[in-house]
Amino acid sequence: MVAADLVEKTKRYHEMLSAAISDVSTLPREGSPLHRAALDLLEMARAYYDDGVHFAGKGDLLNALVCYSYGYAWLDAGVMLGLFDVSMKEKFTV
């Protein structure tokens, strides 16, 4: 991947994951095992987002991109499983 492409893609995935984290809301009722699962998936997405920010800050854009991609995948899985509601449906596999 050409360096300019990596910079652009990392920035795009950073913005995409940030927006997605803000967009999701949990669907299962509080206290249920599925609600806990939804919170776990959201926690994983946030952790990968934070790791991506860390790597980007150190100039390691490849690992930052990987983290943003993995974080988004956790959210996408939650949407596919019916654990999250999202308004940006076109951004997820629904």
Structural overview:
There is one protein chain. Helix 1 (3-23) runs antiparallel to helix 2 (33-57), helix 1 (3-23) packs parallel to helix 3 and helix 2 (33-57) packs antiparallel against helix 3 (61-80). The longest helix has 25 residues, at 33-57. Helices cover 70% and strands 4% of the residues. It has 94 residues and is mainly α. It has 3 helices and 2 strands. The chain has a single domain (3-91), classed as Substrate Binding Domain Of Dnak, Chain:A, Domain 2. A two-stranded antiparallel ribbon has the order 1-2. The chain has helices spanning 3-23, 33-57, 61-80, and strands at 25-26, 84-85.
Descriptors:
94 residues; mainly alpha; Substrate Binding Domain Of Dnak, Chain:A, Domain 2; two-stranded antiparallel ribbon; 3 helices; 2 strands; 70% helix; 4% strand
Report a brief summary of the structure:
The protein is mainly alpha-helical and about 90 residues long. The chain contains three helices and two strands; from the N terminus they run αβααβ.
